[in-house]
Amino acid sequence: MDEIKRIHRERVYRGHIVDFYEDDMLLPDGRIEKFDFIGHKGAAACLAELEPGKLLMVRQFRNALDRHTLEIPAGGLSSVDERTKDCAMRELEEETGYKAVDADVEFLLRIKTTVAFCNENIDVYFAKNLTKTTQHLDDDEYVDVEVWEIEKLLEMIYAGDIQDSKTVASLLAYYNKFYNK
């Protein structure tokens, strides 16, 4: 495969969640082209099971889509050094008001959300044996917690009602790894 090489990167915008860069890329034929790159510090998510087949979901407004979405709980890392498992457990409790102990949380899968122009990585964990606590939402979060059956969630994926990539991948992985045995 022919090599493409970055010869320069310039940050053109620093945001609250992402940084936007413009890269000069040397192509195999010698031309230099501009590529967009969005830098993200990473995130984690938690697919939480109340009982087999019954999962906690969160409904929240997503500005990019200008509508509410049904998703698994997730959030950005506090720092690039934070363990993704710690982030997933924190986000589970903050967004849903349920928590799990470390021993009841296991790695499920890793996704790269938009490989064409962004390095966002989301590690997804599976949690069971949950304990009810209280939600601790951020000042800008408005989250409704809902309990759904996995079969209905799968129907919603195939109907196009659930489109969030971390949620789609996680629900399919859960169904195949833990539920449909």
Describe this structure in words.
By secondary structure, this protein is α+β, with helices and mostly antiparallel strands. Helices cover 20% and strands 44% of the residues. The protein has helices at residues 84-96, 150-158, 165-179; strands at residues 5-14, 18-26, 32-40, 43-51, 54-62, 67-71, 74-76, 98-99, 105-112, 121-127, 131-132, 143-149. Strands 4, 5, 6, 7, 9, 10 and 12 form a seven-stranded mixed beta sheet that branches. The longest helix is centred in the C-terminal third of the chain and has 15 residues, at 165-179. The mean pLDDT is 95.
Concise account of the structure shown:
The protein has 181 residues and is of the alpha+beta class. The protein is 20% helix and 44% strand. The longest helix has 15 residues.
Stretches where pLDDT is under 50 for at least 5 consecutive residues are none
Number of helices: 3
Backbone CA Rg: 18 Å
Task: Categorize the overall geometry.
Answer: elongated
Describe the sheet with the most strands: 7 strands, mixed
The N- to C-terminal Cα distance equals 40 Å
SS elements, strand count: 12
Secondary structure elements and their pairing?
Blueprint lengths: L4 E10 L3 E9 L5 E9 L2 E9 L2 E9 L4 E5 L2 E3 L7 H13 L1 E2 L5 E8 L8 E7 L3 E2 L10 E7 H9 L6 H15 L2
Helix pairs in contact: 2-3
Keywords:
20% helix; 7-stranded mixed beta sheet; 3-stranded antiparallel beta sheet; 3 helices; alpha+beta; 181 residues
